[in-house]
């Protein structure tokens, strides 16, 4: 009796690949102690594409509500919570040792975060400490160790197979749908405790720009201005149009470098990556470094007085016109 069932059991187990059995992913949540930020939902979708269980790590000062939100997200089966002053401002210097301690305990096969400023400063530290290669800006997941990412400012797409024991990935938000609520309610438990306070840096304060407009990386419509705007004051033309369209306002690097607008508006290779339903480029030439941040937009409209401007090569609709005439006209008509 016993030997038969033991053999049956053995037969069953031999059919299961060990690597799959232990497949598990840790997603590092990004939040403001009140709300889980959308990028985390995109990262959870990516994590679910890897297969296996998904745990979400929520570190913060008073992040109980965020942990509750994370537990409701589809595909999050466990939430690990770390609360303490050490996590004020979510400095990468204090989150890194927490991630390492969590990894030490749970032995995840994958560690995932969004390719935001937060993820970009955290994951290379984690990967270095684990002595593995970070895989950044992933746009697609083929299987548990095969990933697609863009290189040369988005001009080439690379598929790579990672051989590291632990894969540390940052994923591009615009490439994965946000995971919705309606999960079965992941179980919540404390993350490993420890002294995570950073000895090298301290969070002092932050000033958040207040805006009634939608957030740039999640807006359905984005209107961006370039050097052609000529001054910061002239951006008011774009803000007027944006208000009519419930749009966010962005900018090229030239506009930021010239001091027209603050640099959190910059779109492109060294700025934000956006993929709205509608992107309107105003007085922007269309340099590859700018295209790297917006060419996945569903519909692209360009307004430029130079018919040879490269932006027209990616635009679905192009208007060769003086922006100082065209933009007020458009605003008027809406
Ligand atoms: C490593 C590196 C990283 C970079 N990262 C980024 C990045 O993240 N984002 C980014 O944007 N750039 C980036 N750049 C810079 C990029 O190469 C370009 O210099 C920049 O995008 C140009 O900005 P622009 O199109 O606003 O300016 P310009 O190239 O000067 O174009 C201005 C356009 O406005 C048009 N124009 C002028 N007046 C009018 C008018 N009255 N009406 C209509 N049209 C008008 C002109 O015809 C012109 O096409 C990077 C560069 C490097 C080297
Ligand atoms: C745009 O800005 C320039 C420089 O500040 C200014 O001279 C010009 O009048 C402005 N144009 C418009 C239409 O507001």
From TrEMBL:
Coiled coil: none annotated. CDD domains: ETF_alpha. One of its GO terms (molecular function) is electron transfer activity. GO terms for cellular component: electron transfer flavoprotein complex; mitochondrial matrix. Its cofactor is FAD. FAD binds at residues 227, 252-253, 266-270, 283-290, 304. It is found in: Mitochondrion matrix. Binds 1 FAD per dimer. It holds the Pfam family ETF_alpha. SUPFAM superfamilies: Adenine nucleotide alpha hydrolases-like, DHS-like NAD/FAD-binding domain. It comes from the Eukaryota. SMART domains: ETF. Keywords: Electron transport, FAD, Flavoprotein, Mitochondrion, Transport. Residues 25-207 form the Electron transfer flavoprotein alpha/beta-subunit N-terminal domain. One of its GO terms (biological process) is fatty acid beta-oxidation using acyl-CoA dehydrogenase. Gene3D superfamilies: HUPs, TPP-binding domain. PANTHER family: ELECTRON TRANSFER FLAVOPROTEIN ALPHA (PTHR43153), ELECTRON TRANSFER FLAVOPROTEIN SUBUNIT ALPHA, MITOCHONDRIAL (PTHR43153:SF1). The electron transfer flavoprotein serves as a specific electron acceptor for several dehydrogenases, including five acyl-CoA dehydrogenases, glutaryl-CoA and sarcosine dehydrogenase. It transfers the electrons to the main mitochondrial respiratory chain via ETF-ubiquinone oxidoreductase (ETF dehydrogenase). Heterodimer of an alpha and a beta subunit. Belongs to the ETF alpha-subunit/FixB family. This is Electron transfer flavoprotein subunit alpha. It comes from Laodelphax striatellus (Small brown planthopper).
